[in-house]
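Sample intake sheet
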Amino acid sequence: FLRDPDGYYVEISNCEVLAQYCLGDIQVVAGQDQGTPAHFAETAAFVHLAESLAHRAADMHDELSDLAAEFKFSPLAEIAERLGCKRRAPKADEAKLRRLLTRRTVFADICQNETEENIKEILQLADNHVPTAMSIMEIRGWDGALLG
């Protein structure tokens, strides 16, 4: 999963092709050629990138877990301050607020934990920076689960 600038998680997968491959219909796998040797340098670079991403994700999980343990029931302003929020927006950006409120209708979305008023305040505390607002909500709603 990747987080886009609005704080949404985007899943990148090719499950349909993988399922067809696993079920034995190898002919439908686009570009699959059993006779093509793997290029070691490219494969090694890809594996290194994947390991780096996995380690970074684990570090972020641990950091979020520590922050949640410390701040889960703290006031919103305290959480925002701990995350480095220096400015409070005078008002919430209406387009961003509308998108975050829409997310409350998505099953298991972190925005479901918050009221409309809280989301508005969180967005203001984060100076209308959605990824920071999402981090505040993640700390408040932390249950230790990993995404993906």
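Comment: Residues 66 and 72 are 10 Å apart (CA to CA). Helices lie at 15-22, 40-71, 76-82, 94-103, 116-125, 130-140.
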